[in-house]
Fold:
Amino acid sequence: MAEVLDLVLRLVLILAVFLVLPLIVGQTEHKVMAHMQSRLGPMYAGGFHGWAQLIADGVKFMQKEDVVPAAADRRIFSIAPAVALVPYLVVLAVIPIGPGLVGTDLNVGLFFVLAVMGVGVLGSIMAGWSSGNKFSVLGGMRSAAQLVSYELPLVLAASSVAMAAGTLSLPGIVEAWEWWWLPWQAIGLAVFFIAGLAELRRPPFDMPIAESEIIMGPMTEYTGIRFALFLLAEYAGIVVLSALTTVLFLGGWQGPLLPGPVWTLIKVFALAFVVIWVRVSYPRLREDQLQKLAWLGLVPLALLQLAITGVVKVALA
Amino acid sequence: MSSYVLVVALLAIGVAVFTGAILINRLLRPTNLTADKLTTYECGVDPVGADWAQSQIRYYVFTYLYVIFAVDAVFLFPWATVFAQPGYGMATLVEMFVFLAVIALGIVYAWRKRVLAWT
Structure:
């Protein structure tokens, strides 16, 4: 009985994190972007600085008509938002927020995370193809083009951490982490974070979405709740990428004075802020520029990081 | 195996959240579909030509490269967890540089063959 209760409690906590943190990041993005652009952003919903804006948006989306275009591939069109969203929830199962505070400690945790996160992109490609819309097809193609560029640097940078820690378990990696890993794994950190931004299709890598040229790409034909779920997937993705970077490169719950989970949250929100900051600061790249950046920039850098990690690790042993 | 129970339960919860949202939406939404609403969106004018437009995929060689390198990279993970354990050390390090050299050579070859250009 105690085991079942323990399992239920973990599930409830993970679901709460999954539903609340993306909203906080989304609201932060509204306000931070607004102030960086000398605007106020949402000010009315909920009274205090428009804190309830995204809740109001959710209530609105819930009541919207569900339009599936006549030209669309109906079944694929309907389930694409789920394919984009659910992987990010599943990934949260293995991300630790404190000592012992983890959904489940898989011994292949890192591998599991990379495999499951990749599935989310399929949602975008499915949506793009099934919409039967030229903009959406272009967006889906661009998603695919992006996938083949960033995935390799992402995997290589992550495996460098696995080498350093000697384990694939995420809590194991945090336990093995020392402060001097920061300079040692700095290149890996940069490569992982940039490739992660490309995976999330966040600016400056938002060519698949590109609202000013292909009108939200794969999401052109989506309305109401399905569109809202795509947006939730985007912000859940920011949370997952920030949490993963925190766990792999920034020492997760480790830090002085404050309790572990607080440190994890501070680091996650700091990285989420950087994600928003980058969006405001950089113009969109072209798809071929990303591929060039990935294959001639990020992959060689990730290989260099692997070499540094290997040499230092053997020299210390 | 029991550590995967939570993963499976979470997957089920994710599917339930999605279906639940769609069901609540079904109860709350109006349904008033017209032919115009069901038309493919093309900036307000009538759609031109067929729905699935043809386009030239210029990056398919990247896809081959990606598949080859990704399969290589997967083998890094089991190796990464044991390479610094007692009794391995120097030999595994040399192996790693052989591995890196193979990948680097592949990228340089692709680059010199001008595969890594869009046009």
Observations:
- Chain A has one domain: 64-316.
